[in-house]
Amino acid sequence: AADEATEMQRLVVLVSATFEGESTPGAGGAGIVFAATAERMYIATAAHVVRDMGRAATAVEVQSSAGGPSVRAQVVQFDDKDLDLAVLVVDQPRKAGLGIDKLPFARLAAADSGRRGDPVFMAGRRGERLSINVTPDRVSTVSGSTIAFETNFIVQGFSGGALFNDRWMLLGMIVRDNPPEGEARAM
User: Fold this and answer.
1) DSSP 94-159
2) Which in 58, 69, 129, 150 has the greatest CB count within 10 A?
3) Closest CA to 86 of 70, 74, 72, 98
4) pLDDT value of position 123
5) Which of 136, 139, 137 is nearest to 114 (CA)?
6) Closest Cα partner for 161 from 182, 138, 136?
7) pTM for the complete prediction?
8) Tens-place pLDDT, residues 126-144
9) What CA–CA distance (Å, rounded) separates 49 from 153?
10) 32: helix, coil or strand?
């Protein structure tokens, strides 16, 4: 399971956004790589990570969860506010120092596979690093595409990060990071 956790964390990146009137990025969040070629890497994140009170970020940067330099990303789409989804693109990810080889895209859980009481693991931003819980938290409710889970582990910064089941398959993207409960959208 430790090897699977290490493999899956490669899909999670740290996201930082700078807004008008700021000179440095704010607290930021995380994102999930969902496609990558030598030309482009595509990342899903929670829209509120790159939008502040309706303002779009003036600059967005991503960093591999393994460390390395931060690189510029473009926000290519904001979807419906209720969905809370933004798509980021990084051009030439390999040249930018982001690993794209053999990313585990095939480990997506079935959208309806989460059940009340199921163990879950979260990967998100804690300060300037990626953090993943060691002891599983538990799903509290599943309603449509929303997975609520009980947690005292996550902090602000996990938004846009990944929610995994106990087989280290991607269940969803975290959109709310307020203990004692978090919320994710099923992928």
Assistant:
1) TTTT---TT--TT-BPPTT---TT-EEEEEEEETTEEEE-SS-EEEEEEETTEEEEE-SS--TT-T
2) 150
3) 74
4) 96
5) 139
6) 182
7) 0.92
8) 998 999 999 999 999 999 9
9) 19
10) strand
